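Incident log, structure service

09:12 report received: a user says their structure output differs between two submissions of the same chain.
09:20 pulled the input from the user's history:
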Amino acid sequence: MRQLIFFLVMAFSTFLNAAEITNIAAAPEQVSPLLPGMNAPTLQLKDKSGKTIDLATRYQENISVLVVYRGGWCPYCSRQLAGIQEIEPQLIKMGAQIIAIAPDSPEALAKSTIESPHYQLLSDNEMRMSQALGLAYYLDDKTALAYRNKLGVNFVDLDGKDKVALPVPAVFVVDKKGLIQFQYANPNYKVRLDENVLLAAVKAASQR
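09:34 re-ran on a clean worker, output below:
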């Protein structure tokens, strides 16, 4: 009897743990991103050289612009990153740093042409950050197959061989206390945040 109770407790505990680390919507329109006033996730991610970066420590350094994108293979993401790079001097002048996060592996990030001490690329290849931010969603089978065949994308597999996940592109402004001061997330990956709106959000956060 004791063995049965022990087994049931362990099984239930495993179920709870699995539920805690799984936050993936069935479609991009169903994601629930973290909102202003909430704490930004304090995970550890790897940079393009494989070095572990502690986000809690990074938040304390400067106002952080967290850019979550789908991967270096996405042309809309590449344009967005380039656009943010153009306003980097203005962001730095306001005391901000840029942290761009994607499901790409550190090896894939190393191919990026972005080189700046104020603009860091981090790998979320296990989708932990995307889940914690409430941005992760499953691709439907048809889309996943088309992306894999035409783009050769290395997707994260989180639920068996048939499902793959991506993050909804998003931008968060996080203050030095780790609180989200601004959030923009759009299920339509073709529509990205205007750089002028981002500058205004960072300026507002810097004045608080």
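09:41 both user submissions now match this output. Likely a transient worker issue. Closing.
09:42 reviewer note: The radius of gyration is 18 Å. The first strand starts at residue 44 and ends at 47.
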